[in-house]
Amino acid sequence: MTGRHLDAPVIGLDLGGTKIAAALVAADGAVLARHALPTPATEGAHAVLDALAEAARAVRAPGTAAIGVAAAGVIDPATGTVTSATDTIHGWAGTALAAGLATRTGLPVACDNDVRAAAATELAGLGDDGTLIYAAVGTGVGGAVAASGRMLHGAAGIAGHLGHLPSPEADGLPCTCGATGHLEAIAAGPAITAHCARLGGQRADRLQTVAERAAHGDPHATSAITLGARAMGRALGGLANALGPHRVVVTGGVPRIGPLYWDALCAAFTAELMPPLRALRPAPPHGGTDAAVLGAAALTRTLPLHHPHPTGAAT
């Protein structure tokens, strides 16, 4: 936690299952440069670390002080390691993320789960007693939970992994974590796409194709999207009853496919709520598309910094 340069620019990296987004962020939060490249998710952890380093180099400027990484998987900020992960990124579990990237770039690195990093930007606006539920629905279903103004990390950094809540709509369906019946197996983008085919619809290679078919009245596409949305809404509504949040945020590529998804999610959410929460509604993030990289950059000022190995050995 030493050696911070609070007036210097830092790099924020958002590592997802399909894309790495990079930004050079000034001390006042302004984004000075951006870059993006595909995540080599099937090529192993070393390839992903190399790609992260490449993305950082693309936005780095003289005086850059540190790198913050918001990464997929269960991340332990204290050790800088990936303690658990699905097979979305092959061989990601057990990766020494902070040490590996620090060695490749020569800069100190702080890291946390990607959704939790983005959620921290929302929590900042809720005050000292804020309680927040934050869900990110894309290639997978991620999440973050904060209570009494503090982001919860939990044992081994696992707090907030909403995609692995049990979901009746996903009964019997295999989840990426190896279990069955989890929310991610019916509500994530690839899961909705696969379910459309199971219902008898024409196979599609991506969710956007399913959304386009639904917009043209395809009943299989419409059913798959609304089922995934309802499952997500029900899970969030039940969690809201347990936590009593001041704000519920839903973000990611899936909610952006249009009102068919969003309206079904909100209706299912509202139907689950206990009377004191009836005015609560899910909302998009305040931070927009920059939330993840801004949250990643902020990690360099709040979490432990892991410095390059003194021998320069690769990790």
Topology summary:
Elements: E1 10-15, E2 19-25, E3 31-38, H1 45-59, E4 67-71, E5 74-76, E6 81-84, H2 97-105, E7 109-113, H3 114-123, E8 132-137, E9 141-147, E10 150-151, H4 184-187, H5 189-198, H6 207-215, H7 219-243, E11 247-251, H8 259-272, E12 282-283, H9 291-302
Parallel strand pairs: 1-4, 4-7, 8-11, 11-12
Antiparallel strand pairs: 1-2, 2-3, 5-6, 8-9, 9-10
Provide an overview of this structure.
- This protein has 315 residues and is an alpha/beta fold.
- It has nine helices and twelve strands.
- The strands form three sheets. Strands 3-2-1-4-7 form a five-stranded mixed beta sheet. Strands 10-9-8-11-12 form a five-stranded mixed beta sheet, with helices on both faces. Strands 5-6 form a two-stranded antiparallel sheet.
- A hairpin with a 4-residue loop joins strand 5 and strand 6 (81-84).
- The longest helix is centred in the C-terminal third of the chain and has 25 residues, at 219-243.
Question: In a few lines, what is going on in this structure?
Answer:
This protein is an alpha/beta fold.
